[in-house]
Amino acid sequence: MPVRRLSEFVQALRGAGLRISPDEASQGMDAAALVGYQGRQRFHDALAMTLVKREDDRPAFEETFARFFAVTPGAAAATSNNSAMPEPVEEAGEAGESSQGDDGLAGDDDLTAQTPAELEQRLAEAAAQMDFTQMEVITQQGLYTRRLLMNMGMGAVDDRILQLDQGDAPRQARAEALRQWRREVREQAAGHVRRQFLLHGAGKGRALREQTMRAVPFRHLREFQEVKTLVRRMARRLASLHQRRMKKSRRGMLDARRTLVAGIRHDGVPARLHWRQRPVQKSRVMVICDVSSSVSDAARFLLQFLYAMNDVLPRVRSFAFASRFDEISEDFQRYSPDVAVGRVLDRLSGSGTDYGEMFADFWRRCERELDSHTTVIILGDARNNNLPEGAEVLQQIRRRVKQVWWLNPEARSRWNSGDAVMDRYLPHCRLARQCASLDDLERIVDSLLKGLN
Amino acid sequence: MKTRIDSVEDIIRSFSEQGYICSERIALAVYLAAQLHKPVLVEGPPGVGKTELAKAAAAFLEAPLIRLQCYEGLDESRALYEWKYGKQLLYTQLLRDKLGGMLADTDSLEASMDRLGDLGEAFYSETFLEPRPLLHALRSEEPAVLLIDEIDKADQEFEAFLLELLSDFQISIPELGTVKARHQPLVLLTSNDQRELSDALKRRCLHLYIPYPEAELEANIVAARVPDLDARLREQLVAFIQYLREQDMKKLPAISETLDWARALVLLHADSLEQELVADTLNLVLKTEQDVTLARELLPAWLRKLGKR
After folding, report:
1. What angle, rounded to 10 degrees, do the helices at A355-366 and A391-400 form?
2. Chain A: residue nearest B41 by CA?
């Protein structure tokens, strides 16, 4: 059943994070059928060519391939007579030694009389009747192992052990031997299930984890190891989405003058149309991040996100402030985002944010560069420690730039609680949103890019 | 065009007869593409023989090679077809009197319009159609090999426009209708990864990544292309190039550069890689000033290390 094996393989690849369309899957099967299953390398190459379309995915493919089509001597011997199709992982486990010791029991039961290779075949057949692709969480492994053993006909062995236990000493010794043998077979089955879980279930688990990661507040995100990859992937997706839009906006209106001039040599007939090229807008983004303890988590991800999108947002300048205010663009250009965030925090951290002072400082530094193509994004909780708000400076800034956005990591209901003075700043912001999770962040950056192009 | 390809080995043999030495993977890609009628997207660093592959495939299949070089701003009129405006205008000028005569006996404006309407078809017909590479490939009398070179340099719109061609081997021309391929061409697309291609395009293609060759393969390539080079020197040369590729260079040397260098060494009657000789000919291999300076500095150390290996 090569087709089923291959489609399981495709599912396993999807679980490992590859995006494979049904069409590609069927191409893969065609290709595999064409090259045959004899040459392992060629079989591998044919699948790689049809299923892996970006080099980043190659490691995941190699790993899954190795795991799925692992060659073991036992399996090869067992299957060589009927087909050379690479079998899903079969391990010639300790069952070999164990069943040799069972010679005395040979007559007792059909299952125990089998050679290791036969036993393995039996296991594979039993496994083939089950659908492992539905496994989702790690705790399901026990259940699947039990089901697999039942499918192999282990029930009869269990009964036999019970029966032998009732009898005299030699019979009880045989029961003990059988029990030992059963343990080993169970281990073998459990191993099989574990591998199936790694192939299928782990992928689903990851999807689940990813969903969680997108939704939890930033401060819990440190606990997830894969968050960096996720941020990068989200950024890449957004970037490629907006790249297209950038190009499209380059098409302009009909340039009547050039069209007429070009038509002169055709006796005034406008044979070829000329288009007026709209100059590409050079939008600039300036980000001001509060990096005091309460907001620094959100700042970390916002900056990571923005700098991961360098292709579509080439002109980002970033500033950070806590107790002090400073430009941090260079840290991000020189170092990877993690390192840069660490450096910035070391340099500027502290408490006692003063928004009024920060606006004044920003105005002093950047007044000359603020123009109608600039978007200013402020990330902060607007907790001003009861100092002067400096809302009038923000108004000044707003008048000079295209737009001011305010991202607040706190829920909207708390925007004015305590020493927070969000309502003083709100009138000067074109947009103010809560930004507490990766999902929020993605939405915000998406609409930012839409607005820019 | 050859209709039957016996095996992958067949391709490898034919390619090597033409002097194109390739790994089994590359031959397998051509084999699958021809058998499954799917386009192949060939990616890899510049200079590893992506374009050569198309030429070799065309020679192997005994098919004409039609090449479309992509660049920013490439559009349908230059890739697919164009109306010969000049010719159309010339014809109307020449036929002006004739047209006047034809329309003379009509009494109303509507009647003249009708008559002109019938003529309109004549002006948008094959006579005035200037086929460009893609249309050539579709209408070719015998199946062709179509090379769409450096697709990553073309705009995203063009990529989208190609999708119809790549999946159904047909293309819609508003004035003429849908043009279906007479014979399905073997399509090869190459990309230097200057920008990420769309998923839709990748989905329709087989994917082949050609990396820099392994030492053994590279030695075979040099042996096939520059047979005059002494075998021992060839080993040294390939080892040196392979070592260079592990260094932190701005532009890594590709196969074409290895071959250039090998040819130069033959011309200079060199018999081993001496430090002075390497320093003098380095600019054949390294193409930026920065790399050359760096390499000159580190050369003695490199050669010593290679000697030890």
Report:
1. 30
2. A53
CA A108 to chain B, closest CA, distance in angstroms equals 53
For the cut 90, the answer to whether the pLDDT of residue A453 exceeds it is: no
| pLDDT digit string, tens, across residues B103-142 | 777 778 888 888 777 776 777 777 888 888 988 888 888 8
- Where does residue A108 rank: exposed (0-12), middle (13-18), buried (19+ CB within 10 A)? middle
Structure tokens at A83: 């087909």
* Beta carbons within 10 angstroms of residue A180's beta carbon: 12
| Residue B301, domain member (yes or no) | yes
Q: What does the pLDDT average to over A284-295?
A: 84
Query: How far is A100 from A181, CA to CA, in rounded Å?
Result: 10
Asked whether residue B99 carries a pLDDT value surpassing 80, the answer given is: no
Tokens 């199946």: give the residue: B143
Tokens standing for A435? 């930004």
Last residue of a domain, one of B96, B129, B162: B129
Write out the H or E segment, with its range, that includes residue A250: none
- β-partners of residue A320 are A289, A326
Residue to substitute from B23, B36, B42, B94, interface A, most A β-carbons within 10 A: B36
pLDDT tens-digit series, residues A155-197: 888 888 888 888 888 888 888 888 888 888 888 888 888 877 7
Cα(B214)–Cα(B234) distance, integer angstroms = 14
Domains of chain A plus CATH, in order, are 2-212 (no CATH), 282-452 (3.40.50.410)
**Are B102 and B230 members of one domain?**
no
Pair A49, A31: CB distance under 8 Å: yes
Q: Are residues B56 and B142 in the same domain?
A: yes
Q: What is the CA radius of gyration of chain B?
A: 26
| B110 shares its domain with B153 | no
CA end-to-end distance (rounded Å), chain A: 52
Amino acid type, B160: A
For helices A2-15 and A22-35, what crossing angle results, to 10°? 130
Largest CA distance in chain A: 116
SS (H, E, C) chain B: CCCCCCCHHHHHHHHHHCCCCCCHHHHHHHHHHHHHCCCEEEECCCCCCHHHHHHHHHHHHCCCEEEEECCCCCCHHHHCEEECHHHHHHHHHHCHHHHHHHHHCCCCHHHHHHHHHHHHHHHCCHHHEEECHHHHHHHCCCCCEEEEECHHHCCHHHHHHHHHHHHHCEEEECCCEEEECCCCCEEEEEECCCCCCCHHHHHHCEEEECCCCCHHHHHHHHHHHCCCCCHHHHHHHHHHHHHHHHCCCCCCCCHHHHHHHHHHHHHCCCCCCCHHHHHHHHHHCCCCHHHHHHHHHHHHHHHHHHHHC
In whole angstroms, give the CA distance from residue A98 to residue B240.
55
pLDDT tens profile A404-438: 999 988 888 888 888 888 888 999 998 898 888 88
The residue with greater pLDDT, B259 or A418, is B259
Distance of CA A38 to the CA centre of its chain: 35
Nearest to A218 by CA among A307, A332, A296: A296
- Alpha carbons A8 and A12: distance in angstroms, whole number: 6
Residue B3 within any structural domain of the chain? no
ipTM of the complex in this document: 0.81
Verify whether the Cβ–Cβ distance A46 to B203 is below 8 Å: no
Both B71 and B160 in a single domain? yes
Residues B271 and B225 in one domain: yes
**What distance in Å separates the CA atoms of residue A130 and residue A134, rounded to the nearest whole number?**
10
Smallest Cβ–Cβ distance between A266 and the set B32, B43, B89 belongs to B89
Angle between helices A116-128 and A141-152 (to 10 degrees): 120
Are B70 and B97 part of one and the same domain?
no
Q: What is the DSSP letter of A88?
A: S
B207 touches chain A (CB under 8 A): yes
Q: For an interface test with B, which of A40, A54, A232 has the most B Cβ atoms less than 10 Å from its Cβ? A: A54
Residue B85 contacts A, CB cutoff 8 Å? yes
